[in-house]
Amino acid sequence: MAGRPASFSPNDVARIATRLIGQGKNPTVDSVHEQLGRRGSRTTVNNYLKAFRDEFKERGLTALPSAIPEPLIPIIEDFWAHALVKAGERYDEERQSVEQERQAEQEAYNAVHSEQIGIIDEQAALLQDREQFISEQARTVSELEQQVRTLKSLLSGYEETILDLKRDKSRLSDQLDEERQESHRRFDQAKEDWYRERATLRQSVDDARKQLSEDNEKNARLADHWMLQLDDARQQVRELKERHQEDKQRWEADIKLERARADRLAGTVSGYEQRIEEREKEVEILNARLVEMEELNSSQAQTITSLEHLIADWDVDNKPFKS
Question: What pTM was computed for the model?
Answer without folding.
Answer: 0.29
